[in-house]
# Entry
Amino acid sequence: MKFLSLIFLGFVFNSVLAQSGVQQNRIRPVLVIHGGAGTILKKNMSPEKEKAYMQGLEDALRKGYAILEGGGSSLDAVEAVVKELEDNPLFNAGKGAVFTNEGKIELDAAIMNGKNLAAGAVAGITTVKNPITAARAVMEKSEHVMMIGKGAEKFAEQQGLTIVDPSYFYTEERWKSLQKIKRDDSLKMDTDKKNKTGLKQSENKDHKYGTVGAVALDKQGNLAAATSTGGMTNKKFGRVGDVPIIGAGTYANNTTCAISCTGWGEFFIRLVMAKSISDMMEFGKMSLQNAANEMVMKRLPSMQGDGGLIAVDKNGNIAMPFCTEGMYRGFIDKNGKMEIKIYKELY
Ligand code: ASP
# Structure
């Protein structure tokens, strides 16, 4: 008798939950990723290379989505995706990152938890194999939000993260890109006018950017964002881009959305890109798509900047605007549908 009434109680409890819509796993997870925006044209891409990029994005998507599907946190998912892309030499983050003007590799990364606005970032690091994991350690194991250079490296080592020789990050292709940009630049030096950022147009117009990032909504309704980059080829020693600046290149807030940016970082910093979109949603009651389009397709190009971003809102809606020729990108949406794209298209 006792047993029967327990079953009955369980049944009543479940149907009350179902009616009120508070059923567990009601929220369908969403994952969106990018591998950088820039001058990415089909005519410049070999079929093999295109396949390798698509495969790299798919592997990262599957890895992150498996975590979300299994009930894991958005934070774990975005970190896993970014780690995977950092380890892939095709992308400008971790191994395969671009070179500074001095021929070094200086890495930036950030991660943010939309649930409590906790955030962690590292900038200008040269020896930590996975900068995104260092950013997460700053968020979870220190009382700070951002650590830079030698101090960040020392902290990462103390936390037991994998430390590598800077030569680990080297790739032939990125080295050649630096040499090419330096050559082109000295040819164009006389005719170029310096723009407001102190960077010359020629340094940026004809090469692709990089950066990898992920945003996710998990089954608990929590949003998270993660971004990692080598920055821009030929950047000055000590230059820090938008990626590790919370609110510029990376932002997550459960009341609005999670965003990861890629593009000409100086403009993303000056526009406070990601937080502006969140504010437009929170205070201006705009949709994610409208707010993201306004910032990326109008304000960014109006300042002569360019780039793109990926975003997901608290209801699982996705936006992926970019004003460059292409952006490596992919998602698995709330219906479980996967898409991976590289070239320009309207979203
Ligand atoms: N936003 C990055 C930076 O300026 C570069 C990129 O996304 O390619 O450091």
About this structure: The longest helix spans residues 47-69. The longest strand covers residues 30-38.
